[in-house]
Amino acid sequence: MEPVVSYLGVSALLFTIGGVGLCLRRNAIVLFMCVEMMLNAVNLAFVTFSKIHGNLDGQIAVFFVMVIAAAESAIGLAIILSVFRSVSSIETTDAAELKW
Amino acid sequence: MSFIEFVFAAVAIGSALGVVGFRNPLTGAFSLILHLLSVAGLYALLGAHFLAVAQVVVYAGAIMVLVLFVLMLLNLKRESGRKMGLLRGMVTVGIAGMLFVSVAGPMLSHFDNLSSVGLSEAAKASEGGVKAIGQALYGRYIVQFELSSLVLLIGVVGAVMLAKRKTVKLEPRQGGMGGE
């Protein structure tokens, strides 16, 4: 059981790396990729807990997260493209028209 | 952790750092593909074979092809920006540490009041085969499964709507606030 627990540490580390990337980077597509990475870290924790408890519900949750991530990527990239068409850049500092 | 688990975990962490660290978004995207494949390897080692295959097909295949397609279409330059100073680096490390502790702490303390013997018995009893997942998806989770197809449909329609909309061309933003 100990070796399985170390997967949770890996998952937390991946989540942290994704979160730090989300804070540091300004390219919208890189931010999108960091969000995907955080979703993946959570998925890894789901699968690990599913293994630890001997219960398949965690794996079902991962399946639904994957569905949401696929829909999110279609819409997110469409939004990024339409932002690029209007401000000719996808850096988040350039698309700050709503900023006071 | 056995050797192969260690290799997959190390590659996953290293390529995740690559996604955050590489200045060129294209290099970051390829690094993310490596990351997704190694996480798929971890799923397979945990016995979730269906999820490992779905990860390779859906994430590393479909989603990353879409991301690379958009990246190539936009033809981006390297991200401009200043180098990280000492203060900014220290703040980043501090935030990362707090985030890590607040994520890992609850997950690890989850085991405090559980009997490890019962848990390892439960882990032996379960088999995460494709058949069991299919039965759960089309049995207990049938409503959620159908709703997820609706979510995908809305995603497709939304993407087409966003792509077809007429866009207003905004002027490039000047430095600082104008028109006070």
> How is the main sheet of chain A built?
none
Proportion of residues in helical segments of chain A: over 70%
If you average the pLDDT of chain B, what whole number results?
83
**Cα-atom Rg of chain B, whole angstroms?**
22 Å
Gross morphology of chain B is extended
Strand portion of chain B, in percent? Answer: under 5%
Write down the CATH topology of chain A.
Answer: Helix Hairpins
Mean pLDDT of chain A: 88
Through-space gap between termini of chain A: 52 Å
Total of DSSP H or I helical runs spanning 4+ residues of chain A: 3
What report would you give on this structure?
The complex is a heterodimer of chains A (100) and B (180). Chain A is mainly alpha-helical and 100 residues long. Chain A has 3 helices and no strands. The termini of chain A are far apart. The model of chain A has no long low-confidence stretch (mean pLDDT 88). Chain B has helices spanning 3-21, 25-45, 49-74, 86-109, 116-125, 130-138, 142-164. Chain B is mainly α and 180 residues long. Classes of the chains: A mainly alpha (100), B mainly alpha (180). Chains A and B meet through helix 1, helix 2 and helix 3 of A and helix 1, helix 2, helix 3, helix 4 and helix 5 of B.
Brief descriptors of the model:
heterodimer; A: 100 residues; mainly alpha; Helix Hairpins; 3 helices; elongated; B: 180 residues; Four Helix Bundle (Hemerythrin (Met), subunit A)
